[in-house]
């Protein structure tokens, strides 16, 4: 059973399986990946990102309980809109970086170890896609990192101004790129990737290229260019359906360049 597979729990590692929400669109790719984690000897499980407010999906996820803990990678509704319903179904506590998303539990902190369902996870704060984005690193003999939207299984993620911040995102990509080789990336959208480090390095290269293209567009259009004018040049090969998100990404890029007084330089370091 390969990605995408709707309606069925798909095993990915000995301890992690994914249930794909049926909410595909240009921003969510095939839909939101809800991850169900448990050591093979554990009766309980951990759920990462219950997903949208979809009763059928949430019922399917809850059916793989009992759920001892819910973890959230960030606040976007395609990952969290179903949380209240899911808590009613399972009674599980909810933890996230943002205290307002927590239920009967404390917020998580960067570097914190989490022991649940016979597994050891480590919180890796990865601000950038959103201010509250985190990844969860599974300390296991099959190492993996649950990347939320910080790294996707296909394409690249949006850094939408003002909640998205490009400088923070580049720092977060460097964190992921510092993981050992061979740590799998288990993302919030799209198929799993064999090497999170390689994916992060690819993302960094992509951002370098985009920043160079934005600088070139500003040179062609003039410093008073609007984000949409830049989008029409730099993202001409991208589906126009996602241009509104590209507008916000370009604004994040422009803000990054302005903050660094970097309009005449070619590096992102």
UniProtKB/TrEMBL annotation:
The keyword ATP-binding belongs to this UniProt entry's keyword annotation: no
Lineage top rank: taxon: Bacteria
SMART domains registered for this protein in UniProt: Lactamase_B
GO MF entry, a single one: hydrolase activity
UniProt source species: Saccharopolyspora karakumensis
Pfam families cross-referenced by the UniProt entry: Lactamase_B (PF00753), WHD_BLACT (PF17778)
SUPFAM superfamilies according to UniProt: Metallo-hydrolase/oxidoreductase
Keywords in alphabetical order: Hydrolase
Gene3D superfamilies per record: Ribonuclease Z/Hydroxyacylglutathione hydrolase-like, Winged helix-like DNA-binding domain superfamily/Winged helix DNA-binding domain
UniProt-recorded name of the protein: MBL fold metallo-hydrolase
Keyword Chaperone found: no
Ranges for domain Metallo-beta-lactamase: 31-189
């Amino acid at each position: 059973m390969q990605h995408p597979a709707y309606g069925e729990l798909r095993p990915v590692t000995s301890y992690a399986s994914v249930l794909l929400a049926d909410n595909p669109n240009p921003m969510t790719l095939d839909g939101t990946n809800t991850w169900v984690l448990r050591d093979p000897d554990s009766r309980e499980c951990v759920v990462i990102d219950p997903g949208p407010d979809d009763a059928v999906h949430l019922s399917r996820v809850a059916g793989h309980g009992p759920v001892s803990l819910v973890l959230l990678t960030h606040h976007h509704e395609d990952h969290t809109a179903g949380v209240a319903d899911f808590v009613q179904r399972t009674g599980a506590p909810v933890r996230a970086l943002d205290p307002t998303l927590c239920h009967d539990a404390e917020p998580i902190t960067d570097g914190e170890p989490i022991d649940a369902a016979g597994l050891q996870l480590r919180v890796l704060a990865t601000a950038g896609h959103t201010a509250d984005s985190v990844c969860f690193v599974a300390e296991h003999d099959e190492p993996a990192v649950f990347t939320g939207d910080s790294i996707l299984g296909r394409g690249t993620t949006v850094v939408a101004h003002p909640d998205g911040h490009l400088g923070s995102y580049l720092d977060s990509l460097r964190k992921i790129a510092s993981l050992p080789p061979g740590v799998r990336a288990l993302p919030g959208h799209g198929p799993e990737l064999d090497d999170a480090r390689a994916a992060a390095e690819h993302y960094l290269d992509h951002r370098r290229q985009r920043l160079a293209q934005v600088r070139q567009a500003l040179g062609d259009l003039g410093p008073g260019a609007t984000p949409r004018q830049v989008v029409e040049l730099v993202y001409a090969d991208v589906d126009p359906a996602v241009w509104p998100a590209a507008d916000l990404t370009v604004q994040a890029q422009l803000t990054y360049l302005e903050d660094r007084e970097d309009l005449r330089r070619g590096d992102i370091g």
